[in-house]
Amino acid sequence: MNCPFCGDGESKVVDSRPTDEGQSIRRRRECIACSRRFTTYEKIEELPLIVIKKTGNRESFNRNKILKGMIKACEKRPVALCDIENIVNEIEKQLYNSMEKEIKTEFIGELVMEHIKKLDEVAYVRFASVYREFKDINTFMGELRKLLKEKTN
């Protein structure tokens, strides 16, 4: 860290304290060359996650969209909100751990479908009907048949 007063690159940390509820660290430094003190802050660098929509448009990742979609799919089902939130947390963790800066909605949708299938089959079919944009009853029945086949195996 260069001294803001003399520009020298050597300094020592005199004091460190967590700030912002542990989200950053405040450091008091002393320049070796001029002995003046200055403050720096250290925080985790969060990579912005960009979602590529089916249309090709890009927007910032919003976990609330996944949460709302899952809550809607699980409406009137015996699924606890904490279970839904845990799945959303897991999906978000997977996305950030992938280290990809841009992620297609198709990938996110498949992750949601993979998790929601284990949670509740009716919620899975509801989510799939919106996500896969079923055009007619045959497409819907095809998904049901696939689900029944997996269940019997």
Automatic annotation (TrEMBL):
Binds 1 zinc ion. Residues 9-21 have a biased composition (Basic and acidic residues). It comes from the Bacteria. A zinc finger (unnamed) spans 3-34. It holds the Pfam family Zn_ribbon_NrdR. Its cofactor is Zn(2+). InterPro entries: ATP-cone_dom, NrdR-like_N, RNR_NrdR-like. Residues 1-21 are annotated as: Disordered. Transmembrane segments: none annotated. Keywords: ATP-binding, DNA-binding, Metal-binding, Nucleotide-binding, Repressor, Transcription, Transcription regulation, Zinc, Zinc-finger. One of its GO terms (molecular function) is ATP binding. GO terms for biological process: negative regulation of DNA-templated transcription. Belongs to the NrdR family. Negatively regulates transcription of bacterial ribonucleotide reductase nrd genes and operons by binding to NrdR-boxes. This is Transcriptional repressor NrdR.
